[in-house]
User: Fold this.
Amino acid sequence: MSDRLIRLLADPDYFIAVADNADGPLLGWIGAEYRVLLELGAEIEIVGLVVRRETRRSGVGKALLAAAEDWARGHGLESIRVRAPMSRGRTHTRSTRMGYARIKTQHCYRKGLDRPNDAA
Assistant:
């Protein structure tokens, strides 16, 4: 994970913010990504948000979301996107409470790719 973190911290199109406690463990983190899509144009999507269980409902998540939203505004964008698994009902309630509106429901598919054989 440290290699990924180093790479993402150097990427100007990726945003990472953390909530820390000088006296203890990390309280939470958020990751967001700036990208340009053919069908939508420029957008920022929150791609990760984790808050330590014992600090939930204390404003940590709200502060992390606000930091990502400020980063989006700094890119001149008027909205920000977040996806939530359909199985995480609390996440949906929290998202709407924070001002996010559901725009669609979808399934996500993944296909494993064979690695190309090394040419001899």
Observations:
- The CA atoms of residues 31 and 48 lie 5 Å apart.
- The domain at 2-97 is CATH 3.40.630.30 (Aminopeptidase).
